[in-house]
Amino acid sequence: MKCKALLVVPANNTTMEAEMNALCPDMAPFLVARVKRPARTLTLEDLPAYRQSTLEAVEPFIDQKPDLVVYGCTAAGFLGGPDGNALMVEALRQRTGATVVSTAGAMEAVLQHEGVTETAVVTPYLVPVNDGLRSYLDHAGVRVEVLNSFLCETVAALGEITEDQVREKALATVTAGSNALFIACSQLPTLNVVPELRDQLGIPVWSSIRATAWVAERAMASERDRLKWNHPKT
Fold first, then answer.
1. Which residues fall within 8 angstroms of residue 127, CB to CB, at 6 or more apart?
2. Whose CA, among 67, 137, 171, 175, lies 20 to 30 Å from 91?
């Protein structure tokens, strides 16, 4: 039985839908809920309104009864910290009745799965979100070795970043002693960059989208098992 997946992303996000469809073909095409947000980058003060907008964005999809909801806003997850991200995940679960995974939680899950305790990080964020990312990773037992950012002040600037620029920033960020690399933000294009960097650097390389796809696949496999158990063939 095919499961139905809903992707929840900021309204400006032009990357995650296509990459998730490519990385998770068994779930494609994703339903997509787009969350209203400010034209500037998110701040801690924006989170209450953003959380409300998130619940409003999923409302039109509830009647379609998604089996899996993917909460794909990385910055909001970092800014709210592990507790805030968990509250948003639970609110989405209660509202939709679906299994819910988040990009922030996926970052933690893949780095722990890889046994990473220290990583280089590339982001597009301003200092407050970068600080939130450091804190989030620290809570997960992962130290940020070095962080390099595009320091985007607006979503327009964020949307202009290319794969080539991501690759260049990544290579300029990792050091000879880097044990891993994480490229944060579900808007940054990384579909082709991640496997190239893995081959070139010989270390674990993950992005927000790759991590989310990995966790979504695992969650969907569990959901398929549940559906088979609850709806056995006769």
1. none
2. 137
Q: Find all residues with CB under 8 Å of 49, minimum gap 6, and list them.
A: none
**Helix boundaries (H) for the chain:** 16-23, 47-58, 74-96, 103-113, 127-139, 155-159, 163-173, 193-201, 208-230
* Of 73, 56, 78, 61, the residue nearest 12 (C-alpha): 73
User: Distance between CA atoms of 219 and 67, rounded to whole angstroms?
Assistant: 10
Question: Backbone phi, then psi, for 99, in 5-degree steps?
Answer: -70, 140
Q: Tell me, rounded to whole angstroms, the distance of Cα 168 from its chain centroid.
A: 21
Tokens representing 92 are 């989405």
Q: Which residue has the tokens 């709806």?
A: 231
What percent of the chain shows pLDDT beyond 90? 77
Question: What does the alpha-carbon distance between residue 7 and residue 30 come to, in Å, rounded to a whole number?
Answer: 6
Instruction: List domains and CATH numbers for the chain.
Output: 5-103+210-230 (3.40.50.12500), 106-207 (3.40.50.12500)
CB 84 within 8 A of CB 71: no
pLDDT digits (tens, 9 = 90+) for 9-46: 998 899 999 999 999 999 999 999 999 977 777 777 88
d(CA 195, CA 125): 23
